[in-house]
UniProtKB/TrEMBL annotation:
<comment type="similarity">
    <text>Belongs to the PspA/Vipp/IM30 family.</text>
</comment>
<dbReference type="Pfam" id="PF04012">
    <property type="entry name" value="PspA_IM30"/>
</dbReference>
<dbReference type="InterPro" id="IPR007157">
    <property type="entry name" value="PspA_VIPP1"/>
</dbReference>
<protein>
    <submittedName>
        <fullName>Phage shock protein A</fullName>
    </submittedName>
</protein>
<feature type="region of interest" description="Disordered">
    <location>
        <begin position="133"/>
        <end position="170"/>
    </location>
</feature>
<feature type="compositionally biased region" description="Basic and acidic residues">
    <location>
        <begin position="133"/>
        <end position="148"/>
    </location>
</feature>
Length: 223
């Protein structure tokens, strides 16, 4: 169970690039890793709780055996004081049985206590690593989203200046130039047709002026 955390840490580090090369979604993978780590923590918590319960049970039995041994010792002393050696002997024999139980329970309890301490330490380490991975996951997810956004923008920008788009703009520019040339041609044609009318109108206008000028000259001659 605890080795899984080491594998996850390695995967989230040096092997994450390999996952990206395989076109795997790093955001979904990181979320999956965190879920698996969370399951391992819950299993570790259950195992630690069971071990602590076992340690407490052994401690209780050890305390009871030691307490009963001490009690039988006192009862044996009371029986001797009362002059009842047979009762004292039986109390001492029972005391020996409790002492044997205590002697057997002592190392078992010590081992259970050591195992409980180790499990608690491992569990605390797992939770610390989980918190570190949670922070790293958020950072990696942000970097992944940023990288995807940059890639999308770069592809969009590159397509704007692509050959197809450029050729399309060139074609539209040629059409606009063609429209402009046609407009200029039509204006030239219209200008040519207007020039004849203008010349005729100017001719008539010029004759009227000449007639007015001649009339003025004739007036001065009379005077």
């Amino acid at each position: 169970m605890f080795q899984f955390f080491k594998r996850v840490k390695t995967y989230m580090g040096s092997e994450l690039n390999a996952a990206l090369d395989k076109a795997e979604d790093p955001v979904k993978m990181l979320d999956q890793f965190m879920r698996e780590m969370s399951v391992d923590i819950r299993e570790a918590e259950t195992a630690t709780a069971k071990q602590l319960a076992n340690e407490k049970m052994l401690k209780k039995k050890l305390d009871e055996a030691q307490s009963m041994a001490a009690k039988r010792q006192q009862q044996a002393a009371d029986a001797v004081e009362a002059g009842n050696d047979d009762l004292a002997r039986r109390a001492l024999e029972d005391k020996q049985n409790y002492m044997k139980q205590a002697d057997a329970l002592q190392p078992a309890h010590e081992q259970a206590a050591a195992d409980s301490a180790a499990l608690r330490e491992k569990l605390a380490e797992m939770k610390r690593e989980y918190e570190e991975m949670e922070l790293k996951k958020d950072s990696l997810k942000a970097r992944a989203e940023s990288a995807k956004t940059r890639t999308k923008m770069n592809r969009t920008l590159s397509s704007v200046g692509g050959d197809e788009s450029r050729q399309g703009f060139d074609r539209m520019e040629e059409k606009v130039m063609q429209y402009e040339a046609e407009a200029e041609t039509s204006e030239d044609l219209r200008s040519g047709s207007r020039s004849l009318d203008d010349e005729l109108a100017a001719l008539k206008k010029g004759n009227a002026v000449d007639d007015e000028l001649a009339a003025l000259k004739q007036q001065f001659k009379k005077e």
